[in-house]
Amino acid sequence: MDDPEFSPPALTVICAWCETVVSGPGDGPVSHGICRACACRFLERLPLAYLEAIADADGTVTLFSGYRFRLAEVRQDGRRSAHPGEGFP
After folding, report:
1. Helices H, strands E: what count in the chain?
2. Calculated CA dihedral for residues 16, 17, 20, 26, nearest 10 degrees
3. What is the mean pLDDT of each run of 10 residues along the chain (89 residues)?
4. What backbone phi and psi angles, to 5 degrees, belong to 10?
5. Where are the alpha helices (DSSP H) in the chain?
6. How crowded is the C-beta side of 80, counted as CA atoms within 13 Å?
7. pLDDT at 19
8. Model-level pTM?
9. 86: nearest Cα among 19, 12, 29
């Protein structure tokens, strides 16, 4: 039975690639996810034809994390994007 007097500590989610805090208070239990900058860098590594095949009708790709990117945001020329954050190799 749930105890109304007990609430679990807030979960902190950090990026598994660059260790940026994605959500939460920064202390207590930790889980891992991906920040927006590293998610974009991940998409940049995928073939454009694949991204086009999985894109929604409006030209966006939505990741499991909930981040949504327009295909135009994802560079396909091999250069680093202008997105902030470091750590994704």
Report:
1. 2, 5
2. 20
3. 72 93 87 92 90 91 88 68 44
4. -65, 135
5. 36-44, 48-54
6. 10
7. 93
8. 0.69
9. 19
